[in-house]
Amino acid sequence: MKFNFDQSPDRRGTESVKWDLYPGTLPLWVADMDFKVAPAIQQALQRRLEHGVFGYELVPDSYFEATGRWFARRHGWEGISKENLIPTTGVIAAYSAALKATTQPGDKVLVMTPCYNAFFPAIEHNKCEQLDCPLSYNEKQYIIDWDLLEQKAAQAKVLLLCNPHNPVGRVWTREELLLTAGICQRNNVFVISDEIHCELTYPGHDYTPWATLPEEFVQNSVSCISPTKAFNIAGIQIANLFAANPQVYKKMLEALHKNQCADINVFGATALKAAYNEGEEWLDQLRDYLFHNARTVACFLEDELPEVNVLPLEGTYLMWIDCRKALKPNEPLEGFSERFAKHLQETVQLTLSPGSIYGKAGEGFMRVNIACPRSRLLDGMQRFIVGFESYKNNA
Ligand SMILES: Cc1ncc(COP(=O)(O)O)c(C=O)c1O
Questions:
Q1: How far is residue 296's CA from residue 370's CA, in Å, rounded to a whole number?
Q2: Last residue of one domain, picked from the residues 244, 278, 312
Q3: Is the same domain home to 209 and 158?
Q4: Burial class (CB in 10 A: 0-12, 13-18, 19+), 183
């Protein structure tokens, strides 16, 4: 391997959310990676820094071209251009503005729970009502409950989709997206597809951009994309809102301006262009490394702690673990994830994300961020086993 993912800089004391919010614990929680960025990104930022002036900037054509080329080449998504892509400060900003543009107070927004926790405040801040369509869990895998989706879609204005899905690690297939699109179309539901995790998929699971579905479905949708997760530049805060339909594009631009998040920071375009133009080899090696991290966790826990169910990771670097077998006799499920997370922090100094923050359907589960050197991840898993046993046996 040309890039060494076994090494990572010490992030403690750098004001890192992941490392410095719960000091003294091993943080396998918030979704950023411990790896240094691709050298090409660091070099491009260094060159930009050298200039020494950081006033307001235009977004150059080369920004749109780099994004368009990347998605066409890697994902078969043709046609991204300056006319349909709006740069913004983040994916949360993008879907929040999209919600503002497509809903009225009181409208219902459909989410497939457990789902990314920052969907919930965006729905609330737009004065909409959250309508859960829990994914169906068959102890092995999560799938969409089609009857339930049809039923819920009849009441909803918008579907806020996560493709690939955080936290359950599913990469929706084209067939699943087509069925979803059909249901939304029949019920006149607008689709906002959050595709921030799209680059991080593993063998046998390809990301299908919502925008590559048949035109009739794409017209009534927007997609939120960004290189930040895959290239570990989330703190630079750069993302794009894609709208194929010119009327939708206009509404989105207005909403982004109303929310005052249509201007990007001076390092955003530089980082995005370096990632998409020069980051491909790094990304492919990262994907390989993360795939092996995921296998390591799955095999290790299967051998050492068969009581937990580790969901197969199709995409993202966030693993989803069913921990309900740690429940003590007569212990209620409600509140378990939080109690277990606290116990892990206090007894084995490990920070994981409690599943319940992703909605009621996530209760009993924990989310583990595997984007760190393998030895650190194994340390985390050893702590997890000790914490699991002590929680369970400490009646
Ligand atoms: C599904 C999803 N959407 C959006 C975000 C955050 O995006 P941003 O930092 O660009 O606002 C995350 C971060 O973890 C995420 O998992």
A1: 10
A2: 278
A3: yes
A4: buried
Is the CB of 88 within 6 Å of ligand 1? no
Crossing angle for the helix pair 374-393 and 280-304, nearest 10 degrees? 30
Q: From the CA of 7, how far away is ligand 1's center (Å)? A: 25
Q: How many domains does the chain have?
A: 2
Q: How far is the CA of 394 from the centre of ligand 1 (A)?
A: 36
Fill in the amino acid letter for 246.
Answer: P
The predicted structure's pLDDT at residue 1: 78
β-bridge pairing 108-111 and 129-132: parallel
7 assigned to some structural domain: no
Tell whether 263 and 148 lie within a shared domain: yes
- Could you tell me the CA-to-CA distances from 350 to 10, 375, 394 in Å, in that order? 17, 15, 18
Which tokens in the block code for residue 271? 């980082």
pLDDT, residue 364, reads 98
What letter represents residue 100's amino acid?
K
Which residues form the domain of 251?
Answer: 53-278
Q: Tell whether the model's pLDDT for residue 394 goes beyond 90.
A: no
Ligand 1 touching residue 226 (CB < 6 A): yes
| One domain, residues 315 and 217 | no
- C-alpha 167 to ligand 1 mean position (Å): 11
Residue 246 lies in a domain: yes
Average pLDDT over residues 377-386: 98
Question: What is the Cα–Cα distance from 52 to 49, expressed in whole angstroms?
Answer: 6
What's residue 319's pLDDT? Answer: 98
The CA-atom distances, in angstroms, between 88 and each of 65, 211, 225 are: 16, 19, 10
Q: Does 135 map to a domain?
A: yes
Reported as a single tens digit per residue, the pLDDT across 81-119 is: 999 999 999 999 999 999 999 999 999 999 999 999 999
Query: What would the DSSP string read from start to end of 212-275?
Result: GS-HHHHTTEEEEE-SHHHHT-GGG--EEEE-SSHHHHHHHHHHHHHTT-----TTHHHHHHHH
| Amino acid in the structure at residue 107 | D
Please name which of 71, 61, 158 lies closest in space to residue 107, comparing C-alpha atoms: 158
193 lines ligand 1 (CB under 6 A): no
